[in-house]
Design a protein that fits this description.
Helix 7 packs across helix 10, helix 9 packs antiparallel against helix 10 (266-283) and helix 13 packs parallel to helix 15. With 426 residues, the protein is an alpha+beta fold. The longest helix is centred in the C-terminal third of the chain and has 22 residues, at 287-308. The protein has helices spanning 6-18, 26-42, 55-62, 75-85, 100-112, 182-191, 198-217, 224-232, 236-252, 266-283, 287-308, 316-331, 336-350, 362-381, 397-411, 413-423; strands at 21-23, 48-53, 114-119, 127-134, 137-144, 150-155, 158-162, 258-260.
C-alpha cells in the first residue's frame, strides 16, 4: 500500500486516534475528565454535582476501583476525584497526579456535598453529562460516543462550546472505519513506514508490559495471571495469557500505572498487545517485526469493534484476543489466508462471552479470549478450521466479522439491558 493512498493515511490516523494513554478503567476516567472540565468552566469548587450517565457507563463503573482515590469505587468517586484533584489538561490521565492531600479532599467532598447520579435519557450507549453547581451558577460538560468526545459545554445555560449533533453517528469525530478489512490491514502493516508508528507502538509496549509485570508482582484482584503461571507453568502459550491477564488484574483493582488503550479500552489495549510482545520475545524477532505484528493486532481488534460499537453486552476482550491471535499468526509467517482462518476459528470459539462491567473477572475473560486466538492459529497449522454455516460463522472472514458485529450490536441489545438490571438489582 503506497503512502499516498487514502487508505494508508486512514489506517495511520486510526492508530493515532486509538492508541492513547489512559490511567484506570476508561469509563470512570471519562467521568473524572468531564467533571474536571466542568469544574474548570465553573471556576470554583462546586457544592452540588449531578452526573447523568447511560446504562453502559453505569455498568462499567459500578464495580471497578478508581485509581488514586484510596480504593473508592463508583461514578460519584470518579466525578469527585476529577473535580477536587483532577487536571483536565491530562485528559484520560486526569487523576494521575492525585496525592494524599487530594485523596483527603475527595473523601471530605463525598461526605459533605450533594453528589447525584441518574440515568441518561439519551438513546446512545455512551452518553455522559456532568453538571456542577455553586449557588445560582452552574456549568455542564457532555461527552458522547467515546471517552474524550466533548460535544457540549455550557455555563449558566450559555453555550460555550458545541461541536455537532452527535446523536447522528456512532463514530462522530473519528476517521471513518467502514473502509477497514483484513486484507488491507495486512497490506498496510507490511508497507507502513515504521518511523510513522514507532513512537506510538513503543509507548504501547512499555506501558502495557509494565502494568502486566506489576500485576504479577503485586496482589491485585483475583490474581488470574499468577494463578495461570502457578498451575500451568510459563511456556509461551501460558505466559502470553498470564501476562495480559495480570495487566488487567492490576488495572481493574486500581493500579495507578497508565496503559495504552485500543477501542477506548485499556483491557483491550493490554489484550491486543501483551501476548504479541511475549511471542515476539520467544521467537527472537527483530523490533520491526514486532511493530508490524502489533499493527496487525491493533487494527484487527479495531475492525471487529467497529461493527459492534464502543460499549455492548459483547465482551471487548474477545475482539482483542482475536486480534492478538492475528498478530501472533503474522509473527509466525502467516499472511492473509492464515490470519483470516485464525480470526474465524477464534470468533467461532468465544463470541458468547458477555460484558458485565469492569471488574476483576475481566482478567479471566482476557485469558480465555487469548487462548481462543492462539488455538485458532494452531488449528489452521494442523489443517483444521470452522466452515461457513457452522453456527454464526460465514464463508469469508469479512462476512464472519460482520456476523459478529450484528450479534454484538443488535442481537445482544436486550441482553445488555438485562445484564444492567441484574447488576443494579432491579
Amino acid at each position: 500500500m503506497d503512502n499516498t493512498d487514502n487508505r494508508y493515511r486512514d489506517y495511520l490516523d486510526i492508530l493515532h486516534e486509538e492508541l492513547v494513554p489512559a490511567m484506570g478503567c476508561t469509563e470512570p476516567i471519562a467521568v473524572a475528565y468531564a467533571a474536571a472540565r466542568a469544574r474548570a468552566v465553573l471556576g470554583i469548587q462546586p457544592d452540588r454535582v449531578v452526573i447523568e450517565a447511560s446504562d453502559n457507563i453505569i455498568k462499567n463503573v459500578k464495580s471497578v476501583v478508581v485509581p488514586n482515590t484510596g480504593s473508592l469505587r463508583g461514578i460519584e468517586a470518579a466525578a469527585v476525584a476529577g473535580i477536587v484533584a483532577g487536571d483536565e489538561d491530562k485528559v484520560l490521565e486526569v487523576i494521575s497526579s492525585v496525592d494524599d492531600e487530594g485523596r483527603k479532599k475527595i473523601k471530605h467532598f463525598l461526605e459533605s456535598r450533594d453528589v447525584t447520579v441518574c440515568k441518561s435519557t439519551s438513546p446512545l450507549t455512551f452518553d455522559l453529562r456532568v453538571t456542577v453547581f455553586k449557588g445560582e451558577s452552574k456549568a455542564c460538560v457532555k461527552i458522547s460516543h467515546f471517552h474524550t468526545n466533548i460535544v457540549l459545554i455550557t455555563k449558566d445555560d450559555e453555550i460555550i462550546f458545541q461541536n455537532q449533533d452527535c446523536d447522528e453517528i456512532n463514530t462522530a469525530g473519528l476517521t471513518d472505519r467502514s473502509m477497514m478489512n483484513v486484507k488491507d490491514i495486512l497490506d498496510f502493516s507490511e508497507s507502513v513506514d515504521i518511523s510513522e508508528v514507532e513512537d506510538l507502538l513503543q509507548r504501547q509496549i512499555e506501558y502495557n508490559t509494565r502494568i502486566a509485570a506489576e500485576g504479577l508482582k503485586g496482589d491485585w484482584g483475583a490474581n488470574i495471571g499468577s494463578v495461570l503461571l502457578e498451575i500451568w507453568g510459563d511456556d509461551i502459550k501460558t505466559r502470553a495469557k498470564a501476562m495480559a491477564a495480570a495487566g488487567s488484574d492490576a488495572r481493574m483493582s486500581g493500579c495507578g500505572l497508565p496503559v495504552v488503550i485500543v477501542s477506548g479500552s485499556g483491557n483491550q489495549g493490554i489484550t491486543a498487545s501483551v501476548p504479541v510482545i511475549e511471542y515476539a520475545k520467544e521467537l527472537g524477532v527483530k523490533k520491526e517485526a514486532l511493530y508490524r505484528a502489533l499493527v496487525v493486532s491493533n487494527l484487527v481488534t479495531i475492525h471487529q469493534k467497529t461493527g459492534i460499537g464502543r460499549l455492548s453486552a459483547y465482551c471487548g476482550a474477545v475482539s482483542a484476543g482475536v486480534g492478538a491471535g492475528a498478530g501472533i499468526t503474522w509473527l509466525h509467517g502467516g499472511r492473509f489466508v492464515e490470519v483470516a482462518h485464525t480470526i474465524v476459528n477464534a470468533l467461532a470459539t468465544v463470541s458468547g462471552i458477555i460484558c458485565d462491567g469492569a471488574k476483576p473477572s475481566c482478567a479471566a475473560k482476557i485469558a480465555a479470549a487469548i487462548d481462543a486466538g492462539i488455538l485458532g492459529f494452531h488449528m489452521y497449522q494442523k489443517g483444521q478450521q470452522f466452515y461457513g454455516g457452522d453456527g454464526i460463522v460465514k464463508k469469508g472472514v469479512e462476512n464472519t466479522i460482520a456476523s459478529i458485529g450484528r450479534l454484538g450490536r443488535d442481537g445482544m441489545r436486550e441482553t445488555d439491558k438485562e445484564i444492567i438490571r441484574i447488576m443494579l438489582g432491579e
